[in-house]
Design a protein that fits this description.
Helix content: 25-40%
Strand order of the largest sheet: 2-3-4-1-5-8-7-6
Strand content: 35-45%
Length: 137
């Protein structure tokens, strides 16, 4: 793991929350996109070497919708930038962590991702991220 890539924050409305985060971070959102497979719309803010990702549900049965219903708005996950996502998945599985994804999948912001189950990380949802371009290299 190289660094904290981003913190994911579940919000009811990206439009409304973006007003708050733009002022708070003194930065403009650099990208808004939907990840259809996850039922989520995302907005990214660059803060130094790390990012803040706002997450809004686009489907009533999406993981973000369920999170918001259960816990309300707030920190959803922490994401780590990794050099080799498949090697990191295998290493963590070998260390006994429970994975939600054993194969990388397409994520937002030109990344491939995999999540670890919070049951094996003291209740924190952990995401592994790697630039898609590294898969082709």
């Amino acid at each position: 793991m190289k660094k904290i890539e981003h913190l994911g924050i579940a919000v009811k409305s990206i439009e409304e929350s973006s007003k708050i985060y733009a002022k708070l971070l003194n930065a403009e959102c650099y990208k808004i996109e939907e990840v259809e497979s996850e039922g989520v719309k995302t907005a990214f803010y660059q803060i130094g070497e790390s990012k803040i990702e706002l997450l809004e549900a686009t489907k009533a049965d999406s993981p973000i919708a369920k999170f918001l219903e259960k816990k309300g708005q707030g920190i959803h996950h922490i994401a780590f930038d990794v050099e080799d996502i498949q090697a990191e998945i295998e290493r963590l599985e070998g260390e006994g962590f429970q994975l939600i994804h054993t194969q990388p999948k397409a994520g937002a912001d030109d990344k491939v991702i995999a999540f670890l189950h919070p049951k094996s990380t003291d209740g924190i949802l952990v995401e592994l991220c790697m630039d898609k371009a590294k898969l082709k290299a």
